[in-house]
Amino acid sequence: AAGVRLDGRGLLENREITVHFGQDYGSCAVSLGETRVLAQVSCEVVEPRPSRPNEGKIVTNVHITPMAGPEYEAGRTSDAQDELQQLLESNIKESRCLDLEALCIMAEESVWQLRADVTVLNACGNLGDACNMAVVAALKHFHRPDITVEEDGRVTIHSFSEREPIPTFLKKVPVCLTYAFCQQQDGELIVFSDPTDLEERVVMGKLVVGLNPHGEITSMNFPGLVMLDKKHISFCIMNAFQRARHCAELIEKLVEEDLQKRKLEVHPKGFLGKLISDEQHKRNLINGKVALMSIMSSQFQRVRDKMDVDQNNDNAIKHEMDESNNHDSATEEIDLMDDDNDKENYDEEQRQKDNVEELNYDEEKQKCKDDEDVETVDDDDDDSSSTCSSDSQFSIEQGRSASPRNVATDSSSDDSSDSEDSEEDVKESVNVGNL
User: Fold this and answer.
1) Are 187 and 334 part of one and the same domain?
2) Smallest Cα–Cα separation from 32: which of 118, 137, 131?
3) pLDDT tens-digit profile of 37-49?
4) Fewer Cβ within 10 Å of end Cβ, the chain: N or C?
5) Which residues in 152-172 are b (16+ Cβ under 10 Å) and which e?
């Protein structure tokens, strides 16, 4: 159908814009249809320019990742990246939308420098509008830390927990809008807004208009080879003015909503300050907060009771284990004592047995010795008897061969000895009688 594009949009119909803010201040992700862009604003203290000693600085940096499209390579700067860099500098930096004097810390010595890093995640057409909106939303959302300047010139930067951060003030919100042109067979130009990547490949040229909601044109670029007349430029500017007002209101609304959410969750002072105007709303919210606190307190008490029960169970288990260990130790000691007693009894029995064996051995030994003595005595008696018999035989034979004189002498001596013996016997008997 006439006037309908490939994705079903009209000629001047734009794709849906989605803005999400990150956890940190100044972090913003913008989706324009399938185009994805991420912007992050940071700050640092630097020296001012000699030509502007009381003004801060703002720096923009654009990076197109290889995942954005097959035509982009890692480590190489493309023409599209240079065009985006120039577009952001002319529409944001040269438009003076940011109060640079508010970034001055000490004139001619130190100022704040804001750095906006833009990363293109998916390039599906109209990167200029998406990058510009991401940078503006990130600057609007960014808060820098508060500072204190001492008398000696020292500068102290306070953390967000010590002091409330200072928001970035934008005097005017610059918006960038892109229009593409195609020439028909009759030579007439067709104008359509927010071109996709497929449409950008066949267009003859583009018109990029930068302006603020007050109708002030901040920049205007003409990439391409198309010749535009006053009628087409005026048409694009009038349409861009209406679109710029809508985009600026959307950015301010989303930033304000996100900051209010942060105040409700992080800053209780701002949360309670909002309740002063509406007393009934204040009561409801406070009651809800008290109820929430009571619920949290009950949950905490249940958790605490459970922890106490678990602790008691652990103590009981530990006590049982200690008792079991003590019982095992006592059992081991008793077993050791029984073993010692058994060992002592065994040693005593062994000693008694050894003594008995030793006594038996001594008796056997003594008996053997006595037997040997008896045998020795018998042998001696036999020897003596044999000796006596031989001696008597020898004396008889000698007597036979002796003379009669000797026999008479012997007999007389025997008689005298017998008489002496009889006299001694008489004397002993007399002595016994006297006693």
Assistant:
1) no
2) 131
3) 999 999 999 999 9
4) N
5) eeeeeeeeeeeeeeeebebeb
